[in-house]
Design goal:
It contains 9 helices and 15 strands. It comes from Flammeovirga pectinis. This is PPM-type phosphatase domain-containing protein.
């Protein structure tokens, strides 16, 4: 029978061989599942280890997952462990264990750069002849080697995912840039002047605006806000824009355009996204505006200094197969007017006192600045918003769209 020294020498030789095989497996880029198997087989090949459990934090670092289990039959251990570990840290390490954890002699946090990656729980046999084979140091060293290798795999996976996300965002950002009109009619001495300001909350926003010259007589302007963000929202808005432009340039009436847009959104989004939108068509010949508000913040209309809101229309687009109560608003005898549209990111901005900017403050500003040119008006509005919000961040995308019509120019 081997003496104590011979046992320990044999153990060290076995451990060195195991470490070499483990490092070879890591260098060969074996899967996480394979590395956990190697970990379990390496430690449990030591007859003194009777219980082994490895809890590993998931990639979001918000949940412990039991990846290795040997000799333990306590299925509720995972739920009880975090509290038990806090208790264990306060106890003497000699013969003191949290209630229900008596089968484990060591509870080892596995760290990398001061971040806890996992917890290894090890229990040893009580037989005296196996006491020479106990080695918590090797268990801890192997745990560190395996867990750091697995963490590197997770980080590489996360980096690849971030690269793919960045690539998708770049594509979506490019798509979104193409959505907005390249040039808007603007000037102090033109019959129709349009100006827009757009401030995305993230690199990819969900707001949209457009100005379409349907003919020498008519134009269509629109502002919209799609639910959701990122690539899906950008693609949906791209399809939406294509539909509106194609139908408008074919001379389709406003009601038909909105019905077709609703159908297109339903087919594209399958009920997962919707769009709030506002459409306004103006005929210089008839001096008439027709408009439909599809669940959007009602724009302001100013005629001879009098304010009104353009609310007539229907509900949001993309939620109903057939739009309910669709009504086209119409106002005649308009040679001179001003329309100001916006998305809810502007009026729903909060300040440090948790007060909302709201529509009333916007109307008050517009009333006081009607004589400003549109670029100056937009600039001052954004300055007002920045002052109002204080230290608060923008909660959503912000779009401002204004149109001045004066047929006498």
């Amino acid at each position: 029978m081997a003496n104590s020294t011979e046992k320990q020498l044999m153990l060290k030789q076995m451990q060195l061989g195991s470490l070499f095989e483990t490092i070879s497996a890591i260098n060969a880029n074996q899967s996480e599942e394979d590395l956990y198997t190697i970990y379990k087989l390496t430690l449990t090949s030591n007859p003194s280890i009777t219980n082994l459990v490895l809890f590993v934090f998931n990639e979001d670092k918000d949940e412990l997952v039991r990846e290795v289990n040997h000799g333990n039959h306590d299925h509720d251990l995972t739920e009880r462990f975090p509290k038990a570990f806090e208790e264990y840290k306060k106890l003497s390490k000699i013969k003191n264990h949290p209630s229900g954890f008596e089968q484990f002699e060591s509870i080892m946090p596995i760290k990398h750069k001061n971040e806890i990656l996992a917890y290894a729980l090890v229990g040893f046999a009580e037989e005296k002849h196996l006491s020479d084979l106990r080695d918590t140091g090797f268990a801890e060293a192997l745990s560190n080697i395996i867990l750091v290798a697995i963490e590197n795999k997770k980080l590489a996976r996360k980096e690849e995912k971030q690269k793919e996300t960045k690539k998708q965002l770049e594509i979506a950002s490019h798509v979104q840039e193409m959505l907005f009109p390249k040039k808007l009619p603007y000037g102090d001495n033109v019959p129709v002047s349009v100006h827009a300001s757009y401030m995305p909350h993230h690199s990819i926003g969900g707001d949209y605006y457009d100005f379409i010259q349907m003919s020498d007589d008519k134009f269509l302007m629109s502002i919209a806000d799609v639910s959701g963000k990122g690539v899906p929202a950008a693609i949906l808005m791209s399809n939406f824009q294509g539909t509106i432009r194609a139908l408008a340039r074919r001379g389709m009436d406003l009601e038909s355009i909105v019905h077709e847009a609703n159908t297109q959104i339903l087919e594209s989004a399958q009920g997962e996204n919707f769009i709030t939108a506002f459409f306004l068509e103006y005929s210089k010949k008839n001096q008439t505006i027709k408009f439909i508000n599809a669940g959007h913040n009602p724009p302001f209309l100013v005629v001879n200094g009098e304010f009104s809101r353009l609310e007539t229309g229907t509900t949001i687009l993309g939620s109903f197969t057939k739009l309910p109560f669709l009504e086209v608003g119409e106002i005649n005898n308009l040679r001179k007017f001003f329309v100001f549209g916006f998305t809810d990111g502007f009026t729903e901005t909060y300040n440090d006192e948790d007060e909302e900017l709201g529509d009333d403050k916007l109307e008050e500003f517009l009333l006081a600045n009607l004589n400003c040119n549109q670029k100056e008006m937009h600039k001052n509005l954004i300055a007002l918003l920045n002052t109002f919000k204080g230290h608060q961040a923008y909660a959503d995308d912000i779009t401002l769209l204004s149109c001045k019509v004066d047929l006498d120019k």
